[in-house]
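SAMPLE LOG
Freezer: B-3
Tube label: C17
Construct: single chain, 114 aa
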Amino acid sequence: MTYGGIVVSLKVPDKDGNFGDVVLGYDKFDDYVKNNPFFGALVGRYGNRIARGKFTLDGKEYTLAVNSGLNNLHGGPVGFDKRVWKATTLLTADVPALQLNLLSKNGDQGFPAI
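STRUCTURE (predicted):
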């Protein structure tokens, strides 16, 4: 889905050729909005915790938005998992594909653009 770039379903065959969904997630959109522990989402700008919501790059210290105690987790309180991405369907010669785009400007959640 475009919210969070979340993969909500992926059906693959088992050894007998029966298809089943292998994605962990919710049945309702509202559950992704109010109670999502990053199931299937694109996280960012950084995937993991940044201690005390601070880091130094090229001698400059950056202070980030925090959302896990004093830490920045997976990009902060409004990380990529909570944004609406622009989706474009691509038809290639081999397989169909989906392209997701999101602009994260300089300073977004305290992160610099590089």
